[in-house]
UniProtKB/TrEMBL annotation:
Name under which the protein is recorded: Uncharacterized protein LOC101512317 isoform X2
Signal peptide segment: none
Gene assigned in the entry: LOC101512317
Record's compositionally biased regions (Basic and acidic residues): 10-25
Span list, region Disordered: 1-25
Amino acid sequence: MSLISQKARPKNETKREEDVKEKEVEDGKECDVEILEVKRRKTEKTIGRVKRQRFKSINKCTYSDSRHHDRATNKQNMNIQQNSNSSKNFDLISKLPQELMLAILSLVPLKCLLNSARHVSKPWATAIQACLRGKPPGIYIEIIHATEASYFLNIQDYVKGHSERIYLGLSWRFGEIVAISDGMFLLCDRFRLTYVVNPIIKCCFRIPPLPLSKLHAQLRSTIACVPRTGKFKVFLIDDQNVSGVNWYVFNVLRIGIDNTWKEIVRKEVKLLNYTGLLAWKPVHNGDNDIYWITEEGVIVMDVDKEIIIREYPLPPQPVDTFPLPVYLWTGDCLSFFMDEKDSRTYQIYTLDMDSGKWTLYHEIRPFHNAGICSHMLGFDFNIMATSMIFRFWINDQIIFMVMFVPKSISGPTGLATHVHFCYNIKTRQVAKIDFIPIGDFKAWLHTPTLTRC
């Protein structure tokens, strides 16, 4: 068969003829050179096609894998570099001198420190805890018998200065506040102590049953932090009569140590006409001393050693004084507030720790509570009665609360309204605290902490 005739024939017919000849060779029939040549060409085409496909697939896979591998490697390297930079930043911050670190953290808003920055790392939390100790105290607003949560007001320097509101989420259902020490709240429910709470980190400690023979535990207890430690103690005073002898019995609850009440001290009452009145709240000086106010005098107890270290006489006061005088801590000494019979002049005495004598420190000049305070508030109702309660000192100002009892149209009296004021010792001026709302609120001096109870 000539080449010209082969080229002239259709391609499909030529392919069928080649397949027939190939089958005849496979079946053992005789073959010629042309048939062998056809088979060789077909085999070469098949081998060439397979090589080309393999080369393309290898090139394609190599390109794809190398590209993704490079991207993954670059991303991993970036993550490693970022993590290393972050860890280096942590290390740099933790390696800074403590004074410099505290100076930097003091510029950060308190809300940022409490809500986010303390969660960064353990070194940051430790540094923030040290920073909180150096910050000035603020005011905690306790909302009594309401569904809203209480909150903390960050005060910069003065009561009338800038404030930052931080909601802590502590509900009144836990109880009312009895005392606050280094950020820890001692709570009570009517006549019994219930919890010790740190509202910042949302931890609480349930107080076991009280070893108390009488009611009104909120007037006989307080909480204190052992200096230079994170340990807290709850102290409680009771009076007992054993075989005709009256005793002051002091108990302590060491939180996180034994978690049970322990009797630590007994002191005999030598007063002949003792009435068993323990109507004054104990005063904690913020350090290592607790001042117990009794009918006999002032008993000073060491928080760390749990022993009585000193005793002082009571300040000069009328026998039948009502309302009862108030004892507050004035920064470096114990102060005593007493009002005259007309309830318009208030005298402030301070205790000299060395001589043990009370001296007149300041006298709040006569002013009419209902007249002046209601004029400031713009009340358009007649006030039936007022009650003035001194809360605490902050710098040179005294924070006090006035309870207004208005005359009701439908009945003899209406609901009491609480309003907070501040009195400046130097300027002798009274001003309403604007950022404390009017209503069923109570203000406390408070310093946030990250210590667990």
